[in-house]
Amino acid sequence: MKVYISATLQNFIGKNHVIEAPEGDLWSVLKFLTEEYPDAKQVLFDEDNNLRKFVRIYAGNEDRTTTDMWYKTLSGEEEVLILPAIAGGANDSIINDVRMKAQSLDDDEIKRFEKHLLLKEISVKGQKRIKAARVIVCGAGALGSPVIQYLAAAGVGTIKVVDENEVALEDLQTQVIHGSRDVRRPKVASAKDTVRNINRNIGFEAENAALNAENIEQIFDGYDLVIDCSDNYKLRYLINDACALLDIPVVFAAIYQYEGRVSIFNHNGGPCLRCLYPEPPEPGLVPTCAAGGAISPLPGIIGSIQANEALKLIIGIGEHLDGKMLIMDSLYLHTRILPVKKDSNCPLCGLSKTILSVEEFDYDDFCGLKEPDEETPVEGLTPEELTKRMDSGEPLTIIDVREPHERAIMRFPNAIIIPIGQLARRMKELDPEVDTVFICKSGKRSILAINTLREAGYEGNMYNLKGGFDAMKDIVLSHEGAWL
Ligand SMILES: [Zn+2]
């Protein structure tokens, strides 16, 4: 069976990244390892033969360190991972000593950052590293709100925020860097005002632009760290790839409803997003945070962990989430940290790389965002066209594929409710002689619904409501009486 050795231990285990051990239980695997590599014994065990406290042992994805499962026979598939804590220290900082020493703190700064200076792990040197740091935050939304504010408050010398959107009313529930008066302002402008109010002395660069394959390297170039606070798969892969190619670590986080995840990619030879998820899910299959909702404090909690990881990387202290992913369920207060393995077949950071430039990679195709093939276009109706057809009274079937909680906000008049998962099975309920219109929240899952039925062999005319229910909400409200 396979035993994975974390980078910090490899020097003691013949520089091996993975060891093949005879099948057995955890105890026999460790015994084999320490007999084969006596140096490893001293690192992993104390004089009394107890596992040292800074070592974690995983089998499969489970941390078995302090469980009573050491003598349980492992199945061949349960790979063992030995993961010692990474010791902190200035050597681990992403800001080198030359840049740290070039900084000085004035009296105001010594007062302002007093609580950092009191921490022996940070102190003056750490604060100077923070001041020297140049950090990019991708997205001034829900996760960006705590990240930008805490990094500014902590004294990060240069913060660049990239976001092309304007503040909308529905953003305010989670995006606490913006206020009611900021609605319809560019998010970067609103974020800049908040940051100026926190700390006037740091450099703030507002990049009111959409990141794309053409501009990302130029926007990221010269920065020490990227914080991924974006909200879609295309951007996440683009950020991951650009950072791997430019050798910049990424602090990644994602939220959905009550759950948040944080990890660090491209750091110290650790894994990247592609090692973890070689491909994004099909569009519409997994709702985004925007479509699925999120409880207000969740981005605050998860973004704060992101900011904390960023500062630890800058100062060079503590244990990092590289090679690990923290998963927090805020509904049941369940938190776990799972190992993330580097994939030697990763096209970006593996042994034989095939992605050498972001400009040559087709992100739309990779993320399934290309318009469907010409032979099977999905016909769309605008809200106005659908309104006209509904008003005319001609036969028309309307299928609402939204989730129950989305329908609870407002139902669509005269619609039949069929979740996407049941469509193929319930195809008989549709009359192929009658035109059918599919409705979801934003007009993407409804395309998936039409393609699902096509694949199942349905031959009637199908239309997608362009922009989804969101685009038609106002018309539905004003017509309600007439259509019910
Ligand atoms: Zn990778």
Structure characterization notes:
The chain contains 18 helices and 18 strands. The chain is an alpha/beta fold and 484 residues long. It folds into three domains: 2-84, Roll (Ubiquitin-like (UB roll)); 90-366, NAD(P)-binding Rossmann-like Domain (Rossmann fold, 3-Layer(aba) Sandwich); 379-483, Rhodanese-like domain (Oxidized Rhodanese, domain 1, 3-Layer(aba) Sandwich). The strands form three sheets. It has an eight-stranded mixed β-sheet, with helices on both faces. Strands 2-1-5-3-4 form a five-stranded mixed β-sheet, with helices on one face. Zinc ion binds next to α11.
Relative helix content = 25-40%
Which compounds are bound in this model? Answer: zinc ion
CATH class of the largest domain: Alpha Beta
CATH superfamily placement of the largest domain: NAD(P)-binding Rossmann-like Domain
- The domain count comes to 3
Widest sheet: strand ordering? 8-7-6-9-10-11-12-13
The average pLDDT value, as a whole number, equals: 88
Which architecture name of the largest domain does CATH use? 3-Layer(aba) Sandwich
CATH level 3 topology of the largest domain: Rossmann fold
Instruction: Pick out the low-confidence regions.
Output: 87-91
Structural class: alpha/beta
Tell me about the biggest sheet?
A: 8 strands, mixed
Separation of the first and last Cα atoms: 64 Å
Counting DSSP H or I runs of 4 or more residues, the number of helices is 18
Quick recap of the structure?
With 484 residues, this protein is of the alpha/beta class.
List keywords for this structure.
globular; Rossmann fold; Oxidized Rhodanese, domain 1; 484 residues; Ubiquitin-like (UB roll); 5-stranded mixed beta sheet; alpha/beta; 3 domains; binds zinc ion
